[in-house]
Specification:
159 residues, 5-stranded mixed β-sheet
Amino acid sequence: MGFYDFEATKMNGQTVSMRDYEGKVVLVVNTASKCGFTPQFEGLETLYKTYKDQGLEILGFPCNQFAGQDAGSNSEISEFCQVNYGVTFTMFEKIKVNGKEAHPLYKYLKNEAKSSLGSTIKWNFTKFLIGRDGTVVKRFASATEPKDMVSELELELNK
């Protein structure tokens, strides 16, 4: 199985195939509304607005597995992201990224791009860069600011 073989459910309840993003550069991020890294929403939105016309898609997946930092409902999370950060990139329903109940997409991503901790996601705002061919290109740590990923993003966008 590859990236394009997975599906996820958007905040509005619509199921989306990752195949819809074929030929695009995709950044997949597990998010949280009450985290020290939450201000990264602003940087992610800036990246999206800057590069969407060149083929960048950002997919946000809220997760409440880290210190209960996204305990709200999907509608509360969606409203928070729009009101506080003007998020226009695609946000999906809340999922789990670790453990037996981890979303299948995240099981795949973690296996394709392990960190020093193996396949575990350490915290919110871990980012996975997917190339236009669906290959997992790189995994970025939570502390990596969106602006610090520009060179890797541009490299993929220019392929």
